Amino acid sequence: MGTGASKQSVASKQTNVKVSGYSRTDNYQHTARVRKHADFAGECATSVPRASNHPSKGHSRQTVNADVTVRTLSRKKDGALVCVSIDFGTTYSGYAYAFRHSPNEIIGRGRGQPVKFPTSVLLNPQKKMVAFGEDAKTLYHGLVKTQEYKSWYLFELFKMALFVQNKPLEKNIMIEDILGNKMKAVEIFSLAIEYIKTEVINTLTDETRMNKATINVMTDIHWVLTVPAIWNDLSKKFMRDAATRAGIPDEMLTLALEPEAASLFCKEQLGVGTLPSGHRYMVLDLGGGTADITVHQVNDDGTLSEIHQPTGGDFGGTNVDNKFVGILVQIFGADIFQKFKKDCMDEYLDFMQNFEIKKRNFDGSTKLILRFPIKLREMYEQDVGASVESSVNQTLFGNKLEFILDKLVINVELAKTLFDEAVGNIVRTVEELMVAVKPIYHILLVGGFSESPYLQSVMRKTFDVAFGGEAKVIIPNEPSLAVVHGAVLYCLKPFAIAARVCKYTYGIARLMRFEEGHPDNKKVRIGDKYYCDDIFNKHIEIGTQINIANAEIVKAQTYYPSRSDMKQAVLEVYASPHKDPKYIDENGCQFVGLIKLDIDPKGDMYSELLVKLMFGGTELRIQVTDVKQNIVTNACVDFLG
Fold it and tell me: Which residues form the signal peptide (predicted)?
């Protein structure tokens, strides 16, 4: 939670604060919402933070420099010697970097190691991290062989815990390891980011030492952490908090949207940069957990503008895994399958790894043939008293599955159904965008799931001009590296993305005079007047295109204290997926953060708070001016939508 500007008699005092994303107050004694002057015409002008706002009476509007915060927040980053990107993925992660003196040379993970590594965290029985990535998987597999694994903790696929829709993200959200043991998500995320950060620093230290130079890890590195564009604001803020907890300086950290980073990579590497002004293309970042889709248009100066708010969902590659496990549970029962997973972890891990390999190579024309775990067969037949074959023949899968010796054979028809939900949702979303923002000339597929031959085949047959479609489908070489390399480009050229489309409607909670039609449960009394609480006072509407380079002021509004004895005003920021929300508790509305501000201790209810929402880079910035005292407070909310 940010702190308010101190009360000093100085001209236009500038204060930077951080907006909390996880708390709010309903204490109306000394801290309250604001309201607007129009809500109490004829009485002493008060406003409620919960803020009320109204046309000013006799107060001059001072012009506040909208670029103050941009310069303050970016100066240190601009002076960094190296840009480092971390692509924190659901199944795999990676990093890349470039020195500012050699911006065209983007360097990935070297020393003979794989460029991408599993997002796997292994903790010992004391809950201390002992391994990450492939080392974590290998060590855990060894523990399984010796039956020591049950007291250890292996966390995988945990990034999906941050994909929440139409509900707030809990600050203390818990995640489960492979055996169902729970720990706080922020601890696991922080440990993973810290490991990657340490490896990056060691790599950079060695490289600069070879060049007889030194690097200050606190001031010389501009870190860029990638996040899905379709995440809500609190999930994005969670990642920033996890990164700072991992030791990355907050003032040296930038969040980048994954499909935007991929778009910059494609623009630079695939000749998209030669496309004419006005040319539109769609980027599909198809990862393990989510499909993140955006549409860009090339501007006259070669920069890119987003022309539709990001869309997508939880239909990444792991959706296919979940469908496969779902079939196994239907055949063997949840209890037996969970017992197999817990007691025969070595066979379970081998089985799922075998499926992962087959899934990646499936092209829609051949059967899937898997090694079937002997222990699972034995458990089932001992518990049920019937053979697996006879039981399967009594299910819907009877003519689609075969057990031949130690092999499980899945026919083509059933194998395709494993992909149906994920691929179907991707196709449907692209079809909707093709109608909404015609014309689109290219569709770019990036991310790990985009390497699926079956997915590529479906996309080409559905959309490519070679098959009668309206666009050219492009899959770059090594599409899984597009995001991590593109994020370095974004670090070097943050204004290469010139405009974004607002993914939510943003506003501030306030009070207004209670009127007929207002809900009775929102009726509150202040003094001898009645007000309606929880009003959503809109500042910017979903679908609005925001000019990033100009740090555009979207909408300035004025708010006033709700009562004369207020010592603090509270500005609560909310986001809604709807164009015209009326109340902050409507379906889909989410609390983003708040600012607490010290106000005139003399209790003047005419204290005027001029609130401006400004969009620059990847953060929503809020600038609040106490007009009477000439005090300016700057605050930042992680904003990427």
Answer: none
